[in-house]
Write a structure and sequence with these properties.
The complex is a heterodimer of chains A (443) and B (127). Chain A has 443 residues and is of the alpha/beta class. Chain A has 15 helices and 18 strands. The longest helix of chain B is centred in the C-terminal third of the chain and has 7 residues. Classes of the chains: A alpha/beta (443), B mainly beta (127). The interface between A and B is large, with 39 and 35 residues.
């Protein structure tokens, strides 16, 4: 293969600004394809960049990327009408991260003369954005291998048609609109749709539940567990996963998946680049067999609703619901099937008689017996919630306890729970982990 | 009203430990290393491990332990018997072991009641 074989990252460059909150200060850094570049730098892969960004960002982006070892910076297209600033509310992806691409509707993209330089590259990874993919298709050499991260900004797959015959890998995630609209209940349809572009593989990143690699040549599926730890900032983690995977795919596709998953995990756990590179370097000294042996958390998106979760909480209309609604939103975002006794069996009026209470008790206990896990939010030391938790603990049903106000720092509550925290991120990890263990015990 | 932080991109590799005037959470390195941290946990799969199989019991408090990668990360007693597996949230310690860190620990509490349970503390040694 003649031409430049450095992996060319094509996509938008943003300024990512993570808003401060009670637990963390604000974070300012270059985003978009710069996340992917950090991943390639960390695994010592040679790369170049074709950037779509506003003129004011070019010097900063070029300087930063060259510092990471970028071999060539091509200003592919100018962005007008928008600063390409992404305001990020929730950096840990407890639920939807709430990205705000400021002035995105005013954005226009104008390709520049030096875009022709793209033709020299034989390996490309494209992160679609607010730019014309068919124009990019004409810029890239006919004998180039092209991969896509289609997690964002690809409303449908039609625009991939111009690349047919040149596609190596298609990568998406369970957070993407494309996935949610086409594969939320069954992934087969999406895989078949993507197969029409003749990729070698499709990689589906499933957030805290791990990821799946569909090898379309051999029709096999490989599973990579997630390594759940404290999430510091999940912004760009998927981009790192994609970039490292594509950069290593030629040597061995499955090994590339294992290594990329580890690099992505390290990226989620620090925003300091030198810490990230150090941690990735250590992580990739393990053999693939060692990575396999260590295990981790694996709960595919489509398996999650098979495990019913009893929602033990004062889930009443008349209380301050902010923490309860936050938990419910997060559980729904991750495709968990939550059974809400108050919602399903009703809410007793004050002053109800014992017979009415007994009917409700029987219905709630019946629902509890149908569930395999309990997610508890025992706000206000709610006695009903605590009894439900005790019942579950006594019958070996794993209980995950989210106690945001730390009102239940009690030995039985804490030690009896599989996970106990005032941090929802920690509780979600505990839930994924407990469900993964149940799933594994049945296989 | 003045502005603080966020004034420039400061997360350059090699640009310091993030504790100085490096903008909003900037700097190249945090100055910390997770491999240097001590940790505590409840061991898993205790009843499937060597020690329980051999003794039908759990090791007593203060039993010395080391950390080894035996497929999963295992707490191992001085006779080389595995006592239990570390939770997978601590899997990053395998990376630390491969980087040369060594961890020693002890049993803090143990019980072999209805379900065998072993609580452990570990601390690192420099590579």
């Amino acid at each position: 293969m003649s031409g430049n074989t450095d992996l060319l990252l094509i996509g938008e460059v943003f300024v990512d600004f993570t808003l401060p909150n009670a637990n963390a200060q604000s974070k300012l850094r270059l985003g978009g394809i710069v996340h992917a570049a950090r991943g390639l730098w960390a695994v010592d892969q040679s790369f170049a960049v074709a950037a779509v960004c506003p003129a004011y960002l070019v010097d900063n982006a070029r300087k930063y990327l060259e510092h990471l070892g970028c071999t060539e910076f091509i200003w592919l297209a100018d962005v007008e009408g928008s600063p390409n600033v992404m305001a990020i509310g929730d950096p840990t992806e407890i639920a939807d991260q709430g990205y705000q691409d400021i002035l995105r509707d005013e954005k226009s993209v104008k390709f520049l003369e030096n875009s022709a330089d793209v033709e020299r590259f034989k390996r490309c990874l494209i992160f679609p954005g607010k730019f014309d993919l068919s124009f990019v298709a004409n810029l890239i050499s006919d004998d180039a291998e092209i991969s896509f991260d289609i997690a964002y900004d690809l409303p449908d797959t039609k625009s991939l048609a111009a690349f047919k015959g040149r596609v190596l890998a298609l990568i998406t995630s369970t957070s993407s609109d494309l996935f949610l609209e086409n594969a939320a209940t069954d992934v087969a349809h999406l895989i078949d749709d993507l197969r029409s572009f003749s990729p070698k593989c499709v990689l589906l990143k499933e957030n805290r539940g791990g990821s799946r690699l569909f090898d379309l040549d051999s029709d096999t599926v490989d599973e990579f567990p997630a390594l759940l730890g404290e999430t510091v900032n999940s912004v760009g983690v998927g981009d790192v996963y994609s970039a490292v995977f594509v950069s290593l795919i030629e040597a061995n596709m499955q090994d590339a998946g294992w290594k990329a998953a580890r690099a992505a995990t390290c990226y989620a756990q620090t925003t300091f680049p030198d810490d990230f590179k150090r941690d990735v370097g250590r992580s990739l000294t393990l053999s693939i067999d060692q990575m396999r042996g260590l295990g981790g958390t694996f709960v595919p998106w489509h398996d999650r609703p098979k495990f019913q979760i009893y929602f033990a909480a004062p889930d009443f209309t008349y209380i301050e619901r902010a923490f309860i609604d936050q938990a419910l939103e997060a559980l729904a975002y991750h495709n968990f099937k939550v059974r809400r006794p108050v919602f399903e069996n009703g809410e007793l009026k004050k002053g109800s008689n014992v017979d009415e209470m007994h009917t409700m008790f029987t219905a709630d206990v019946s629902l509890l017996k149908d569930c395999e896990l309990v997610f508890a939010v025992p706000l206000t030391r709610d006695p009903g919630t605590l009894v439900e938790m005790g019942w579950a603990m006594a019958t070996d049903v794993p209980v995950i306890t989210y106690d945001p106000l730390r009102e239940n720092t009690n030995t039985m509550v804490i030690a009896g729970s599989k996970a106990y925290s005032d941090n929802l991120d920690t509780c979600l990890n505990g839930l994924f982990d407990a469900m993964s263990n149940i799933r594994a015990s049945r296989q | 009203m003045g502005s603080t932080g966020s004034g420039r991109f400061s997360d350059y590799s090699g640009s310091g430990d993030g504790k100085g005037d490096t903008g909003a959470g900037g700097g190249g390195a945090s100055g910390e290393d997770r491999c240097d941290r001590a940790f505590t946990c409840v061991l898993e799969e205790v009843e499937q491990c060597d020690y329980f199989a051999e003794n039908q019991d759990v090791p007593p408090s203060n039993t010395a332990l080391s950390l080894e990668l035996r497929g999963r990360l295992m707490a191992v007693d001085p006779n080389g018997l595995s006592v239990g597996a570390l939770p997978t949230r601590l899997n990053y310690l395998a990376d630390c072991l491969s980087a040369g860190f060594i961890y020693s620990g002890r049993v803090v509490a143990s019980t072999s009641g209805t379900v065998a349970s072993v609580n452990v503390d570990f601390g690192p040694h420099q590579p």
